[in-house]
Amino acid sequence: MDDTPDNHTESPGDHAVVLGAGLAGLLTARVLAGRFARVTVVERDELSLDGPEFRPGLPQSRHAHVLWARGVELMEQLLPGTTAELLEAGAALLESPRDFLWLSPSDWFRHVPGAGMLIGSRELLDWTLRRAVLRDGRIRMLGGRLATGLVGGPGNRSVTGVTFRDGGRLAAALVVDATGRTSKAPAWLAALGYPAPAVTRYDSHLGYSSRPYAIPKAALDDPRRRWHAMYVQGRPDSPRGGVLVPLEGDRWLVTLIGNGEHAPPTKDPEFLGFARTLRSPALYDAIRDADPLAPPSGFRATANEWRHYERMDRWPEGLLVVGDAACRFNPVYGHGMTVAAITAQALGDAVRGLPAAQIPAQTRRVQRHTVTAANVAWQIATSEDLRYPGTEGPAPDRATRVLQAYMSRVMAGANSDPALSAPFFGVLSLSTPPNTLLTPGTVLRVLSKWRLPTTPRTTTAYPPHHGPA
Q1: Which of 169, 172, 276, 443 is the most interior residue, by most CB within 10 Å?
Q2: Positive or negative CA dihedral for 178, 91, 434, 352?
């Protein structure tokens, strides 16, 4: 995308390098452009501005993605007008659960207050953000360049640039690793004499399989259809689920979900057969006569993993690790992109008012500050994954088990009680703190009104507000 030489006459002190052109990398670059004269985004994949397209570095992009309202708000603050561009290109702003058929582990959600979310293909989102970021003349992109290591300063106490597979080198005062699940930061730090970070990992062995469909003309034209998306959640006694979301181009994207031996298939005709086994036939009924547009795609790298760079005794000046490269989540909860936006905000707060020359010396503090953006999403993902008996990771303590039992009752109430649904979705969308659900009045309401059945509840095939598929 950019053939500018690696050697610049400007001082490296005016330059920041961001590794990775995903959502975390793009928003990080936009934040750093407010402090540095130049920001270079380096991506191993070739990057195009001609239109949205799949790239190997984002294999999870073939599956359902959502950007919760908090993420939309922060994206719009950093890149004004981006939301309108996405909507013009065919993305959708939906209200959850109002615009959904959503079967929770307890029951169907009614038309209760919830939270907004932006839905579209990941390819469209990244392409739109990439164009918006490049409107800032301080930012450039180097596509098709594989970073292979960090350049150490005197005594390796600092990072002063990156090296590339082709032998090139790029000098910078600040290097940010936003390469996500493919991050090589632990190995690069080891090469500079730093120990590997401690890692906390929970793996529920969740599997994805996704397939795009053309929305049937009958569904497009039917004024009685009152839903735009669908979510049939699994639960420990029935660990199969599915998501249907609209995409640009009059398409549906269907993502099937299952744990362990219930992982969904990636071949025909088993894909449709798996959809038929969900707790409700609603999703199967919607797609059984729809035309598939591509073969199913699988995805299995869904573990929660936190690399605790913030706990390291030694840390080189001039290096930050953000996004999935530091902390990644089971994607079924839809938090990754929103956490990336919250992290960008936290980074902006941490460096606000600092001249570029002072930022490298502050990276240890900034690393600790930005990682707090992941706390709530981590708590939600890991506590929910621990409900499944096959989940690998530290066993839940008593406090976690109490919280799980309480949150089960919160969700049961949120299905139909507006007084609970609003704060529940506020927390789920990362817009409000979890203690919103722990106020005395809320706790009393939950414990007095919403009791859990001693045996799994049988739900109706369709919710009361169901409209034709």
Answers
A1: 172
A2: positive
114 contacts 96 by C-beta, under 8 angstroms: yes
Cis amide leading into 97 (omega within 30)? yes
| 201: β partners | 305
pLDDT tens across 286-325, in order? 999 999 999 999 999 899 999 999 999 999 999 999 999 9
pTM of the complete model: 0.94
Q: Residue by residue, what is the 3-state secondary structure of the chain?
A: CCCCCCCCCCCHHHEEEEECCCHHHHHHHHHHCCCCCEEEEEECCCCCCCCCCCCCCCHHHHCCCEEEHHHHHHHHHHCCCHHHHHHHCCCEEEEECCCEEEECCCCECCCCCCEEEEECCHHHHHHHHHHHHHCCCCEEEEECCCEEEEEECHHHCEEEEEEECCCCEEECCEEEECCHHHCCHHHHHHHCCCCCCCEEEEECCEEEEEEEEECCHHHHHCCCCCCCEEEECCECCECEEEEEEEECCCEEEEEEEEEHHHCCCCCCCHHHHHHCCCCCCHHHHHHCCCEECCCCEEECCCCEEEECHHHCCCCCECEEECHHHCEECCHHHCCHHHHHHHHHHHHHHHHCCCCHHHCHHHHHHHHHHHHHHHHHHHHHHHHHHCCCCCCECCCCCHHHHHHHHHHHHHHHHHCCCHHHHHHHHHHHCCCCCHHHHHCHHHHHHHHHHCCCCCCCCCCCCCCCCCCCC
List the one residue out of 98, 96, 113, 91 whose CA is nearest residue 467.
98
Does a cis peptide bond (omega within 30 degrees of 0) precede residue 453?
A: no
Task: Compute how many other C-beta atoms are within 10 angstroms of the C-beta atom of residue 126.
Answer: 23
Per-residue tokens: 82? 């981006």
Q: How far apart, in Å, do the first and last CA atoms of the chain sit?
A: 43
Q: 8 pLDDT band (50/70/90 cuts)?
A: very low
CA distance 116 to 336: 16
What pLDDT is stored for residue 224 in this prediction? Answer: 82
